Amino acid sequence: MKFTFWKSTLAGLMTLCLAAPTAISAPAESPDLLRETGAAFSRIAEDAVDAVVFVQAERTVEVNMPQFPEPFEFFFRSPFEGRGGPQQQPRSREYRQRGQGSGFIITEDGYILTNSHVVKDAESITVTMRDGSELEAELIGADTKTEVALIKVDGKDLPVLELGDSDAIRIGEWVLAVGSPFGLTETVTAGIVSAKGRSNMGITDYEYFIQTDAAINPGNSGGPLLNIDGEVVGINTAIYSRSGGYMGIGFAVPINMAKIVKQQLIEEGEVTRSYLGVYIQPVDETLAESFGLDEARGILISQVEEGSAADEAGLEQGDIILEFNGRSVEDMGSFRNEVATTPPGTTIELRINRDGRMKKVKATLQRLEEEEMAAADTEQMVEDLGIAVTELTPEMAEELGYEDLGRGVVVERVAQGSRAWRHGIRRGHLILEVNRQPVEGVGDFKKALRQSEESGLVLLLVRGPRGTRYVPLKLED
């Protein structure tokens, strides 16, 4: 059974509050308006909580234990033996880890959307319904690149939430977050849409988050973000916090992105993505002026991979992509998502600016394979660090004073406020090493970054006007 959500009263109340100053100035009417506004939120929340569930997942985790020398060996070893004697093999220990979060039912027979970090690699998943009953759930699939996961319980005529259109929401619109923060089920908080299309957050590979100030805390992960019609517009996923708790900045995966992932998980059990084969960067004011553009818009192709869909279509380095299938390209994040979520084999049309002339190019997208995924992940890491690099040419070396070095990559751009920016890396600095490995060019730099993904830490050796220094950067803060 599907709920029919109450849809019109709240919008009308907001209009009255904003557009009728006489109501605000009339003390007798103000309490009534507030009561009706509160009642509107209550009706949406009461209809929603039946379909929101508490999710608990258990997995086995193996942890390497620290090694300490045996006390007797320490005191009685031979003085001719090396300190500590023979090297001991590291020991590992397995233990059960329990995670928890939220989810919401989307079909009457028991499909439930949640976050991948809540259920990924789980050996058992338990879903608690509003009435307290517990059901075992099956993991259908978890897509770590978008933080969307799908689980299923056996059910019939279950309460469900309607999926809305996340593209249609507007900044400033009221939203409600529902979930189980800290295990406190049926928790509802209200706020507004603070921003749309947030990317480069370092949370997932494919990001286009809805930002909200509705209170989201640990345990809210996987719960729904509802619009004033009671429809799901996002999956609550992460918060920005210096304390580990709510600070007024939360992020939700747009439901339109989740719909695509959900359908593939149901039909295929995995997510297939497409690949164009270009390295891109945003067009800022300086680049726009350099390329003779009237305004800074679109994205710039900095490299075309040989044999890729882009190469076969005739795209070139220096092309500026302005439209994707007739839709304006606003930023790198939205473009990457558009390409990735378009089925492989689809022919797309791009409108580009090439040397000041407008041109339309058709490209047939290829399937994103593991090798290309690794390259795409590296681009995301570079994006996460907030830098763009380029080859050190003899002319640049002479201009920047690096003639004595003859190797490395030059920082071409640094995003203000990024990890690299906060550690003092600036445009024109020279990166000589990544994780103690010499860097001869951009290829070496990206290869070394790929090798850093598991550790999550990158150690750069950077040359600047004040000398050379090591700079440690975390891939995730």
Automatic annotation (TrEMBL):
Entry-linked Pfam families: PDZ_2, PDZ_6, Trypsin_2
Segments of this protein annotated with the region Disordered: 79-98
Residues annotated as binding substrate: E58, H117, G219, N220, S221
Places the protein is found: Periplasm
Signal peptide extent: 1-25
A GO term, aspect molecular function: serine-type endopeptidase activity
Record domain PDZ: where: 260-356, 362-442
InterPro entries hit by this protein: PDZ, PDZ_6, PDZ_sf, Pept_S1C_Do, Peptidase_S1_PA, Peptidase_S1C
Gene3D superfamilies (UniProt xref): 2.30.42.10, 2.40.10.120
One BP annotation, GO: proteolysis
One GO cellular component term: periplasmic space
Catalyzed reactions per annotation: Acts on substrates that are at least partially unfolded. The cleavage site P1 residue is normally between a pair of hydrophobic residues, such as Val-|-Val
EC numbers: 3.4.21.107
CDD domains hit by this protein: cpPDZ1_DegP-like
Similarity field: Belongs to the peptidase S1C family.
Name of the protein described by the UniProt record: Probable periplasmic serine endoprotease DegP-like
Organism: Kiritimatiella glycovorans
